[in-house]
Specification:
By secondary structure, this protein is of the alpha+beta class. It has one domain: 60s Ribosomal Protein L30, Chain: A (2-Layer Sandwich), CATH 3.30.1330. Helix content is 28%, strand content 35%. It contains two helices and six strands, in the order βββαβαββ. A four-stranded mixed sheet has the order 1-6-4-5. Strands 2-3 form a two-stranded antiparallel ribbon. The longest helix has 21 residues.
């Protein structure tokens, strides 16, 4: 039987929104900046999983996210695109798939130090 678990992840550095797909040389690709951020999210998620001895989430998950940005909150990037890049990075880490999210609270905060804090709750 699956057990309730919580996973806390801290991702340092400037949060990057999901970039629009690009087209070139007859193919579609993800912009480098987005791809790099998703890999960063994946790395820190895997480290958190290892440190907290977690297993992947198997059912619905609730997620709380705080994005810290060194800029006014009304400027870009938009919150939904920040979330999209984050979800893709977490999925690459094998934490959960974004369709498992049943509840999500996301916020942007002004801060000198940039980064993201993620709390995931569900069954593993």
């Amino acid at each position: 039987m699956a057990e309730a678990q919580e996973l806390a992840i801290v991702i340092p550095g400037r949060p990057v929104p999901k970039g629009r797909p690009r087209f070139g040389r007859g193919r579609v690709y993800t912009p480098k900046k987005t791809k790099d951020y998703e890999q960063t999210v994946c790395l820190f998620a895997k480290l958190a999983v290892k440190k907290q001895k977690m297993v992947p989430f198997v059912g619905p998950v609730a997620v709380s996210v705080k994005f810290f940005l060194n800029q006014p909150l009304t400027n870009r990037p938009d919150l939904d695109n920040l979330g999209k890049a984050l979800w893709d990075g977490l999925e690459k880490a094998g934490i959960f798939k974004d369709e498992q999210i049943y509840m999500c609270v996301m916020e942007k905060r002004e801060s000198v130090e940039e980064g993201a804090e993620v709390m995931i709750m569900g069954e593993g």
